[in-house]
Amino acid sequence: MKLQLALDLVNIPQAIELVAEVQDSIDIVEIGTPIINSLGHEAVRAMKEAYPNLTVLADVKIMDAAGYEVQQASNAGADIVTILGAAEDSSIRGAVKAAKKEGKEILVDMIAVKDIETRAKELDQLGADYICVHTGYDLQAEGKDSFEDLRKIKTVVKNAKTAIAGGIKLETLPEVIKVGPDLVIVGGGITSKEDKKSAAQEIKALINQG
Ligand SMILES: O=C([C@H](O)CO)[C@H](O)[C@H](O)COP(=O)(O)O
After folding, report:
1. Is 163 in the pocket of ligand 1 (CB under 6 A)?
2. Could you tell me if the CB of 136 is within 6 A of ligand 1?
3. Contact, 166 vs 148, CB < 8 A?
4. Which of 44, 80, 132, 191 could disulfide-pair with 76, CB 3.0 to 4.6 Å?
5. Which of 137, 139, 146, 183 to mutate to test the pocket of ligand 1 (most atoms within 8 A of CB)?
6. DSSP 3-state assignment of 43?
7. Strand partners, 58
8. In this structure, are residues 145 and 179 in contact, taking their beta carbons and an 8 Å threshold?
9. Which residue's CA is the closest to the ligand 1 atom numbered 4?
10. Residue 61 main-chain phi, psi, to 5 deg
């Protein structure tokens, strides 16, 4: 089980400084959608330049023009690029093809997908590298989580790795670990803490035990 740190509400220097504190505990660093929307792929480029040995995920949440978008993120240094599970099959195929050509991976974000099992099965067949259940900020604010969705996709996904994101913190991690995703994505559970290094270490230790 790997740990991905999601960076959403920081600027580029803050993101680079934050990773310096926690890099020993994380496997993947995500440049989050809010950062990319405001600062563009420059944030991805700067992170990869600062940490060439760290796997960088660009959370571009692609919905269309997938081959082109994956290429752009890959050119900036992304190792993993995200597309929405709600995108057309032809977009998913385009993303997978472009990523394969560059030796990169695709993470499909299931945010807002209603029939999660059917779509996860399809995405698995379409060649997704990761299928990620995700409770976004707006539903987190309503007290929702993705634990049940993770259980559901684990029963149907045969080829892809499974992942979970959205409001995960040390306190809720044991429930996640029980279900056994390949990747756990944590943002605020680390970045909102005073001592980010210790928070990341504690989360990583729990994951390693699981
Ligand atoms: O993808 C995310 C969200 O949609 C904002 O772009 C977050 O990176 C993801 O939810 C993980 O962050 P936390 O919920 O703070 O753990």
Report:
1. no
2. yes
3. no
4. 44
5. 137
6. helix
7. 31, 81
8. no
9. 136
10. 45, 60
> Mean pLDDT across the stretch 15-36?
98
pLDDT at position 184 over 80: yes
Domain extent for 152? 2-209
Residue among 125, 57, 115 nearest 86 (CA)? 115
Contacts of 193 (CB under 8 A, 6+ apart): 199
Report the Cα–Cα distance between both ends of the chain, in Å, rounded: 8
Q: What pLDDT, in 10s, does the model give residues 105-153?
A: 999 999 999 999 999 999 999 999 999 999 999 999 999 999 999 999 9
Domain count, the chain: 1
Q: What is the average pLDDT across 152-168? A: 98
What is the average pLDDT score of the chain?
A: 97
Q: Do the Cβ atoms of 25 and 3 come closer than 8 Å?
A: yes
One-letter amino acid for residue 8 of the chain: D
Q: ipTM, 2 decimals?
A: 0.97
Q: Provide the CATH number for the domain around residue 35.
A: 3.20.20.70
Q: What share of the chain is helix, strand, coil (3-state, %, to 5)?
A: 50, 20, 30
Token pair for residue 53? 């040995």
Question: What tokens appear for 44 in the block?
Answer: 């991805």
- Ligand 1 proximity of 7 Cβ (cutoff 6 Å): no
For ligand 1, say whether the CB of 139 is within 6 Å of any of its atoms: no
Mutation to probe ligand 1, out of 22, 30, 109, 185 (largest number of atoms < 8 A from CB): 185
